[in-house]
Amino acid sequence: MKLFQFLLLFFGVLLLHAQSKDALIEKANSQIHNEPDKAIESFKKLLSTEKDSKKKIKYYLLMSSAYISKRDLDQSFKAMKSAQELSNEIDDNKTKASVLINVAIQYQQMELYSNSFENLENAEKLSVKLSDTAMAKYSMLGIIYTVRGTIYRIQSSPELALQKFQTGIDYFNKLKKSYSTEANLSIIYYNIGYCYLEMKNYAKAEISFDKSLQLARDNKATSLEAFAYKALGELYFYDKDYKKSLVYLDKAEEKANNIGDIILDQGIYLLKSNNYLALRETDLYRNYYKKYQNIVAKKQQNEFGIISKSIDDVRETNQLALDEVLKSYKILNLIVVVVSLLIIGFVSFFLYKQLKLNRSLSSEINEKFSHRKLS
Fold first, then answer.
1. Of 81, 322, 329, 372, which has the highest C-beta tally within 10 A?
2. What is the CATH number assigned to the segment(s) 176-258?
């Protein structure tokens, strides 16, 4: 039920690349979902020669989405942080709002929903300031309400989620038909289908999943097609129509073969194994359940790698901080020593002068006393 969540990160840079004219950028945009490695290389190439801060922010955010497509959350977060740092240097509401949306989606992925809502609210405040004729305004507001709807769906509030999704659809319908708009509408209807599935309204769930599938097909968005087929397979599994469920899951598996999305594969294999178990086809059940277990093991290995790298990064950061403290401590010690030596020197000089004066006075007194004694 949580497999859909990663798709939200496809929203984050819609407003930035929807109007692009450059052939390389357009090609890289189309590769984000299906060939993320190629997209990442293209964006790195663009970044290496770009001087304009706004364009660099755009490339970092697009690269962040490409990393999410291949499930590399660590690199996605780094690219997003680079964009956020650059956004602090410019005064542009559209760009700042886009970055805030990406930050919100990252927090949503981390299940830090209050942080996500906070960034979405700040993004909305900036978005509404844009001109009503600016298409980016409706793109961003559509994204904002869709992310909110997704969080409510995760929190098992499908009725409230449906309201947010409908608002998102209304905003996207204000835009001209394009690959980005249609792909994002496909994702919205996918989520709406799961709302109805949770409410056990299978008829409306099927309509929504079919709508998602059609939009994905029209735009040749292979990964979105695979998810829509997987969703329909899940719907018919719950409806206990196991053979029909397998028909859709076979199509999902075929589409997923060239994507390399382990979360998508995990969902398909688990559903197929459950279907075969229900049909008492034990050999096929074992085969797909083993595939499912292998994916889980691979996912855990990837997560451990990310966690290990994060720990190393924290350790390195802490070591740098400790080195700074020690450096400051050494400087402080040096200052203390120098000041102490100066004080000691001053006191010694003062004592020496005082001692010399005392000796002079003592000698003078003794001399006077001797003269009196002689007279």
1. 81
2. 1.25.40.10
